[in-house]
Amino acid sequence: MVKEELLKLLEENRGEILPGNDLKDALGVSRNAVWKAIQLLKEEGHHIESIKNKGYTLLKQSDVLSVGGLTQALGAQPSYHVEVLEEVPSTNTYLKESDGKKNNTLVFAKKQTKGRGRLGRSFFSEDPGGLYFSLLKIEDLLQYNPAYATIACALSVRDALSEVSGLSLSIKWVNDIYYEGKKLAGILTEGTLEMETGTLSSLILGIGINVNTGSFPRELEDIATSLFMETGRTYVRQEVAKSVLSHLEKNLLLTKENPDALLASYKKHLLYLGEEITFLYEKKPRMGILKDLTAEGHLLVESEGSLLTLHSGEISIRKGDQT
């Protein structure tokens, strides 16, 4: 308890020196108890500097995912129920298999052993510099249109990462974030429908971002990248999460309130628009020009003299004749 309360104080005053006497008074414990809690936090990886005769400071670049740190960073609106797991096969799967979770439960994993993407693909998520989390929505679902949930999520991640990094990022339809031909982040949204009414009873939004990842397995080196690798800067992941969630809450409302505006913003960053692509259509490879995005968020491709509408889950896009 002392450790968590101490971390909260340090997070609230990140970068500032807090005297030991002030900390012990605020926590109602001894100086020795404060020192022990500081050592435990350091063992967990928090970058805390002990300054002789002055006190302690949590360095601004300290990057450790913790319930206290995330709760402090995310603020009170909306109220999230934060969990941080050391290791889990998949945060989406964890939420799907858990009973009794509250609305706005937000689960972070320091490591995913079976990170999942669209169409059953895997997502590399075993690096300690990654940001892997899922958000559960089970209340007020009528204010969202689930048909646009993935688009809202992808746009939110793109906009947030572009803001924090300064990079010009693109969206590869429907749910991957790219920078100069390499994947930076992926999204997996999953919903549960009530069989009798056909209405949405839960929505899970899973997000995986390569934030401070310094390297990838050899087979991914040419197709994956991270914010750190592209900018040379280390990011505080809880601040990245805060930015993503801020955008996400707004864009989820647009799925119902103004889907046209949502789609227009998404389309601005759509990769390969107006270019020749190869794709799978009815399980056969074809080539065509990516012409537009429909009002439903599907792709329009001109191929062999016809306009084809490509739906989520049916295609795999590659630019030109790439494999």
TrEMBL record:
Per its UniProt record, what InterPro entries does this chain match?
A: aa-tRNA-synth_II/BPL/LPL (IPR045864), Bifunct_BirA (IPR030855), Biotin_CoA_COase_ligase (IPR004408), BPL_C (IPR003142), BPL_LPL_catalytic (IPR004143), HTH_11 (IPR013196), Transcriptional_repressor_C (IPR008988), WH-like_DNA-bd_sf (IPR036388)
Keywords carried by this UniProt record: ATP-binding, Biotin, DNA-binding, Ligase, Nucleotide-binding, Repressor, Transcription, Transcription regulation
Where biotin binds, per the record, is at: 90-92, 112, 116-118, 183
**Catalytic class of the enzyme:** ligase
Output the Pfam families linked to this UniProt entry: BPL_C, BPL_LplA_LipB, HTH_11
- Give me the positions annotated for DNA binding: 20-39
- Annotated BPL/LPL catalytic domain ranges read 77-256
Keyword Transcription regulation in the entry? The reply is: yes
Q: CDD domains this protein is in?
A: BPL
Q: Which GO terms describe its biological process?
A: protein lipoylation; regulation of DNA-templated transcription
Enzyme Commission number: 6.3.4.15
Q: Which residues cross the membrane?
A: none
| Keyword flag Iron-sulfur | no
Under catalytic activity, the entry for this protein gives:
biotin + L-lysyl-[protein] + ATP = N(6)-biotinyl-L-lysyl-[protein] + AMP + diphosphate + H(+)
As one GO molecular function, the record gives: DNA binding
GO cellular component terms, semicolon-separated = cytoplasm
Q: Which PANTHER family match?
A: BIOTIN PROTEIN LIGASE, BIOTIN--PROTEIN LIGASE
Which family is this protein grouped under? Answer: Belongs to the biotin--protein ligase family.
- What exactly does this protein do? Acts both as a biotin--[acetyl-CoA-carboxylase] ligase and a repressor.
Q: What is this protein called?
A: Bifunctional ligase/repressor BirA
Task: Please name the source species.
Answer: Proteiniclasticum ruminis
The encoding gene is birA
